[in-house]
Amino acid sequence: MKTALVILAAGIGARYGGGIKQLEPVGPNGEIIMDYSIHDAIAAGFSKVVFIIRKSIAEDFQAVIGNRIEETCRRLGVEVAYAYQELEDMPDGMTPPPERKKPWGTGQALLACRDVLHEPFAVINADDYYGKEAFGRLYAFLQRYDPSHPLRFCMAGFILRNTLSQNGGVTRGICHVDHAGFLERVTETKHVVPYGPGAAAVPPDGQAVELDPDCFVSMNMWGMTPEFLGELDRGFRAFLQDPAVARETGEFLIPIFVDQLLQTGRISVQVLPTADKWFGVTYRADMPQVKAAFAALHQAGVYRQSLFGDLLD
């Protein structure tokens, strides 16, 4: 069955300190994090890649990755498509409030794919490295897509201690999983940092709340069906009409919306555990460690010196 990899690459990257962090080289030959995700997804069996970007970065994106990946994918028989997240992309002729400066979050970003996404898909962040295991597990799940039960989804479950930054707080979706391995709820938790031998949420103006370092967290790596886009459209409309939403800063986020659907019992989400260590670039100070980690993966033979060489042979 044809399956797509959707990459959320429209983020502004304010915490990174300027620039477009998704396009920063991290590999020994100038590879960026997306290169590794695309490689691992194609190796697992995915046959389509959808980039979600902003029109304002389209030229840089094409120069750094788009043209190159399109050529690689052409040689591998993998389709490439683009979708554009823009602040003004709102339903029913609605217009954004004048004080709003940025788009509406990852939920709106994924909804931008509605004209190019018609198959089961995985969705990931552009600036996160997930490891090979997770892509293989999501692909196997999506191959079991049953149109008669279209709202059965999955999520790669990472271990919290494997997803922290040494350079500042991160936001993590703390997952509550039942005995059968299904997601019960997601609690979006900010300011998560290493804390002694474990982890804690340490807000700037409050006390530390210790977290189980071995709990599952969502790293925004989901396996979903095309029917989810219909749910997302209805959810985004409700979000925009909610008087409690901050017009200037409110965000329509995938994990929060998934949690809302879970609480209604409308969907199921199977958690697929992965022991891979996540790494990514949240802060500029993360970059040296990330480059060292990718160099070590190449040296260990996890990846060839020529990243796509094993697929193109």
Task: Work out the radius of gyration.
Answer: 19 Å
What is the CA–CA distance across the termini?
23 Å
Helix content: 25-40%
Estimate the mean pLDDT confidence. Answer: 92
Helices and strands: which structural class?
Answer: alpha/beta
Q: What percent of residues are in strands?
A: 15-25%
Characterize the largest beta sheet: strand count, sense, and whether it forms a barrel: 11 strands, mixed
N-to-C order of helices and strands: EHEHEHEEHEEEEEEHHEEHH
How many alpha or pi helices? 8
Unreliable segments of 5+ consecutive residues: none
Shape: globular
- Please provide the count of β strands: 13
Describe the fold and architecture.
With about 325 residues, the chain is α/β, with parallel strands linked by helices. It is built from 8 helices and 13 strands. α2 links the parallel β2 (about 50-55) and β3 (about 80-85). α1 (about 35-45) packs across α4 (about 130-140). The radius of gyration is 19 Å and the shape is globular. The chain starts with a strand and ends with a helix.
